[in-house]
Every structure is written in C-alpha cells, then in structure tokens.
Design goal:
- The complex is a heterodimer.
- By secondary structure, chain A is an all-alpha fold.
- Chain A contains four helices and no strands.
- Chain A is globular and about 30 Å long.
- By secondary structure, chain B is α+β, with helices and mostly antiparallel strands.
- Classes of the chains: A mainly alpha, B alpha+beta.
- Chains A and B meet through helix 3 of A and helix 6 of B.
Chain lengths: 81, 399
C-alpha cells in the first residue's frame, strides 16, 4: 500500500466513526481523539479496523505513537513500508 | 391468543412508529425474539416478544405511529396456527435477519435488515401513498436521527430509494430561536420529572485507579484490539458488583414504593454525535467474565452509534453510570433518571499526588460521585455503597 493509500484508508475509517467531522478541517498535529471527538471505545474500534486492514497488531503499548492524525499516519506508514 | 402492545421504552415515551415487521403471520416466535422495530425520538428500537407461540397477524400497518399500549400484533400461543382465514399473499416478507445479525460498522449505511417487506394486501392501508413509500424506502440511521431531532418531515423528500443525511437540510443555526427537538424534549421531560419528584442527595470521593490501569495494560498487552478492555468496562462491573450488595440503589421507584431489582442492568449515559444522549442498559452487568462484559459493551455502543437499540435496553436500566471517559472534566454529578434511584458519576482520571505507605507518590486518580434518592436511602448507606465501588476499582482482580 502506498503512503497515499494509507492516508485515504485512515481518512475513510475515521469517516465511519466520526461522519460529522470533515477531515480536511481538523488539525492533524493535535490530539486525534479531541479533534474527532471520539471516546475510548470509538478509538478501539478505529484501531481494530486499521489492524485488520493492514494486518498489524497495533499494540496498546504503541498508543503513545498514535496521538495525532499525523502521528498515526506516520506509524502506519512506517510499519507497512 | 394475546395482544402484543406498543411497549413503553422509558418514562418519556408516549408513542412509537412501527417501521419494521420482522416476522410474517403464521411464523413461530420464541420469547426473546425480535419481531419488530419501532422508531422513537431516541432512534430505532428492536422489540422483543415475551412469549412462545405464533404470530397470528399484525394489527398495525408499517409506518403507523401509535400510542404506548396500543395492540400492534396478535400472538397465538401453543401449537401451530390454523391456516390463516384471510388470503395470504405468497411470501409476503423476505426472510427476516437473524436477531443477532451483526450491524454494519458504517453508520451511514442503511440498516442491515431486509426491512422492506411488501405490505400485505389484506392490511387496511389508511394512507396508501405513505405506506408504499415507507415500505420501499431505506432511511439511514443518521438521517432518521436528524429528522427526529429537527422535526423534519422525511416524506417531503418524495420517494427516493435511499434517504441519507445529506438529503436533509442542515440542523438549524444554533443562534436562531427554535423549538426544542424531540430528543431535547425527551431529555427535558425526564430530567424535569427527576428534579421535581426525586429528593437527591450527593456524595463524592476519589478513586486511585493506578492498579486498575496497570491491570488493563497487562491484560491488553497480548490481546488483539478487538479483545482489549477499556476502563469503562471496569466501571460498569464495579457499579454492578456494589449494587448487588446494596440493593436500595438498584431498582425502580413507582407509585410511592421502591422495588429493588435482583439483576443489575447498568444504564450507560452515551453521548450521541449530533446532539443529545441516551442511557441504554448493559443488561446483567454483574454476570459473565470481563471479556464477555467488554464484548457486550462494544456491541451496545456500536448499536447506539447506529441509532439502534433493543427495547429492554431502554426500559430496564436499574441504575445509571455516567462517565466522561479519559478526556472529560474531573468531576460529574448526575441527575437520576426516573424511575431509577441512583446515578454514579466518574470523572476523567488524572495524575495526582497521593500519600501511599507514608510516601507522596504520583497516582492516577478519578473523582467519583453518587446522586441517590432520599426516599429510598440515606447518606450513611450511600457512603458505604460508594466505598464499595471504590474498593472494587482499587482491587480490579475482584471484578
């Protein structure tokens, strides 16, 4: 999957969980859960979906590297490269 | 033969619209089967049948709004029914979905059920155009909710095959004066009744969640995402365990008397995107292991996000938990949801200095509150109940 594909996939998954938030209007450097107003169960749903889609474990110990949209995107790209 | 009536799904519900008939006349039904879905201001609610038998006939056509208590179907008990004495169209309904069919994760997809049964010709169609439209059309949960919240008439969109959120006008500008939406009216009615009728008293304390957080971290370390626990599941279980030991906080107050409940159905105050909140129950929250509880919590939250509930989840909560998760403010004191008699509030956990074994240490601490009904209990017992919740959370292995 190219970097562009991963971005599109992440945007699509966030769109499922937070359909009322326009991804182009969020600040990708700020706390993802704040920007998309998602709770811990929504976040788990997102992580589950991303892990399945990309065949990644998405360990909880790595959540600290998934704080913002940009962090999460970089994390996914690094692990699927 | 018994009548199946439009159930009351909470003190604030006056009527409901029959939007899905999932069983055809002559089909067997078993207690607990979901036989219909009803649209209310809270969303689409799946209705269970309470006895074994056969569906004799529907008494209310699809798309009709009827008051709570109105008979909507006839259930025949015992053996297979006589052949219907009215001519049946062949296969009037597509096969209903299995009651536990997983719902689509995509909130804007149409509801999963093949819910477009053709209207049986023998049913009195008072407004044929409306009924034909309802029978044919798919309306996404988000669109239904927006329509309910804004009072928008979906029939004004004509007979499109699918109505989704984008087809509706935007929610009105917040600055403009506007009548309360149905959702806000329902919340207003329940909360006004609570403040009028229930003499609340309030208690507060703090919980050291350090042990609970590491319990979750250790447990989740080797688990796939869909098997992981969230702190909310521990909160629910702790409230349920404590409620079993302190029955005067778990039940309902009706007609000047309190009826304790043996089961603990913990209502979860869940915020809805787009406005409002609902507090459906996580049923039997004291039973099953934590993995089972977590699975049911995810299922419930997933369905709430799609605007779809089961009837018992709205009618049967015995106590409510309101938790702001880990992003909210530090403290919340709830308003009791009548006819319940208690609500537990847990704020967002944060780092606090605390004295542990004579030393100041940085610990994860959350504020916890109890609002309870003074007609049923007093502060002394309330304090013991709140301590019990705290003790369970500080010893997560007891959960």
């Amino acid at each position: 999957m190219t970097a562009k594909d991963i971005r599109a996939m992440l945007t699509a998954q966030l769109g499922r969980i937070a359909p009322d938030i326009d991804t182009s209007r969020i600040d990708p450097t700020l706390e993802l859960r704040e920007e998309f107003d998602i709770d811990s169960i929504d976040f788990l749903t997102l992580i589950t979906a991303l892990g399945k889609e990309l065949s990644l474990d998405m360990p909880e110990a790595d959540y600290g590297q998934m704080r913002s949209f940009d962090d999460l995107l970089a994390y996914l790209q690094a692990r699927t490269a | 033969m018994s009548q199946f009536v439009m159930p009351s799904l909470g003190a604030d519900m006056e009527d409901g619209k029959l939007v899905e008939q999932l069983i055809a006349p002559g089909e067997p039904v078993t207690r607990g089967d979901i036989i219909a879905a009803v649209e209310t201001q809270k969303g689409v609610i799946e209705i269970e049948v309470f006895e074994d038998g056969f569906l004799d006939q529907w008494l209310v056509p699809l798309g009709t709004t009827v008051a709570v208590g109105t008979p909507i179907a006839l259930i025949r008990s015992g053996d297979a029914p006589d052949p219907p004495d009215i001519p049946q169209p062949t296969d009037p309904f597509p096969a209903p979905p299995p009651p536990e069919a997983p719902q689509p994760a995509e909130p804007d997809q149409p509801p999963v059920s093949p819910e477009d049964p053709q209207l049986p010709p023998e049913q009195p169609a008072e407004t044929p155009d409306e009924l034909a439209r309802v029978a044919r059309q798919r309306i996404t949960p988000a669109a239904r909710r927006r329509a309910a919240q804004t009072g928008f008439d979906l029939s004004s969109l004509g007979d499109k095959d699918t109505i989704s959120l984008g087809d509706l006008p935007d929610a009105p500008d917040n600055a403009a004066p506007k009548p309360l939406s149905a959702m806000r009216q329902a919340i207003s009615a329940a909360m006004t009744r609570s403040k009028r009728e229930i003499p609340h008293y309030y208690l507060a304390d703090t919980i050291d969640l350090t042990a609970a957080e590491s319990f979750i971290a250790v447990r989740n370390a080797d688990l796939a995402p869909d098997a992981r626990l969230v702190m909310g599941a521990l909160y629910v279980r702790a409230v349920a365990c404590a409620a079993q030991s302190f029955p005067e906080f778990n039940g309902s107050f009706d007609n000047d008397s309190f009826t304790p409940s043996t089961a603990v159905h913990v209502g979860m105050a869940i915020n809805l995107r787009g406005g409002g909140l609902v507090a459906p129950a996580l049923l039997d929250a004291a039973t099953g292991d934590l993995a089972d509880l977590m699975g049911r919590l995810r299922d419930l939250v997933g369905r709430v996000r799609e605007g779809r509930f089961r009837a018992r989840e709205l009618s049967d909560p015995t106590i409510t938990l309101t938790s702001l998760g880990d992003r909210g403010v530090s403290e919340i004191t709830g308003v009791i949801f009548p006819p319940q008699v208690a609500i537990v509030g847990i704020g967002a956990a944060d780092w606090h200095p605390r004295v542990v074994d004579g030393q100041v240490a940085a610990r994860r601490v959350a504020h916890v509150t109890l609002a309870a009904d003074h007609r049923v209990s007093d502060g002394h017992r309330g304090a013991r109940f709140l301590r019990s919740i705290i003790d369970h959370l500080q010893h997560p292995e007891t959960l």
